[in-house]
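Re-run requested by the PI after the first attempt was lost when the workstation crashed. Everything re-entered from the original request form. Ligand of interest: nicotinamide-adenine-dinucleotide.
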Amino acid sequence: MLVGVPKEIKNHEYRVGLTPDSVREVVAHGHEVVVETNAGVGIGASDADYEAAGASILPTAAEVFAKAEMIVKVKEPQAVERKMLRPDHLLFTYLHLAPDPEQTADLVASGAVCIAYETVTDQKGRLPLLAPMSQVAGRLSIQAGATALQKANGGAGVLLGGVPGVAPAKTVVIGGGVVGAHAIEMAIGLGSDVTVLDRNVDVLDALSARFGSRLKTVFSNRAALEKEVLAADLVVGAVLVAGAAAPKLVTKEHIKAMKPGSVVVDVAIDQGGCFETSRATTHQDPTYIVDEVVHYCVANMPGAVARTSTYALNNATLPYVLALADKGYAAALRDIPGFMPGLNVYKGQVTVAEVAENLGYTY
Ligand code: NAD
């Protein structure tokens, strides 16, 4: 199969669909890969690196789209890219169609087969192509929080791990899923005093087994949440209710009552956020202050570490890319458990019930 990798064009997107190492694997499977010039600059991969891996470099996205049978990307295709899609194209990327009627209409009109990373499941119903970005965001949340706690950034001037003779800062993680577990790992690694709240006892059980006495686990209810948040120096919001907006667990009143200079990192901001005072921010201007509490609410946290994020994403996507190229989409979707839910648009038909219902397509 002829696989195409265009340069990402969404604002401040530095990731790329395939790394040179992934290209080498695809080529080793007997396929041809075309890459748009400079597609990898954001992750430190040059055209020469891609050529050494066996790809051909093309000067424009238009030429990549014209030549390729399968397009591998990171972000949803932008309007100009959607115009280049043909009925014989296979598109494999993040799509997030539910809130995006224009994109959905264009993908339907294109006649292409469009598979979305975010709806692929595994045998346990988890989301294996979303998990790497949650891992990145969870780990980054502690770096961001520790930086915001510094005096010059509006924080209380507290070092997360303290030093011998001075107690460490208290980190509270709300939601102990993928983001939460990775935040906990980093916070413990930095020597912070860490507590996690979750409303799922199995999650608390697993975290307790993993981190032992270095982590305090607390069943989440209103009273417990209030007590922990008011005592915290750093609160990481990492809850997810599948298919729904994040619940506003920390209220305006809680924020007012928190210690001055404490920090909240709302990782769940991409689902609306779990702090009542949260509003989405950008990497250019990541924080703002409400009632002396520093808020970090960047909606695309993995973009800050595009290189790590791209390699982590490729580790998860490559087996699917290879299966699509080797067998074609029909056999790949049929044979890999959980791959079929990834199919979002099939030759002019929306194939995800929620998207079809939300946007008024027949399903
Ligand atoms: P996950 O499903 O693995 O974990 C969510 C956890 O929240 C679960 O353990 C669940 O039991 C818990 N939870 C749900 N409601 C709760 C409540 N009321 N109180 C306490 N715990 C509760 O999800 P995840 O992959 O860890 O993602 C967490 C959030 O981070 C999601 O909103 C996701 O969209 C977001 N995210 C954001 C970024 C970013 O760049 N900002 C990147 C990746 C993920």
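Saved to the shared folder this time. The mean pLDDT is 96.
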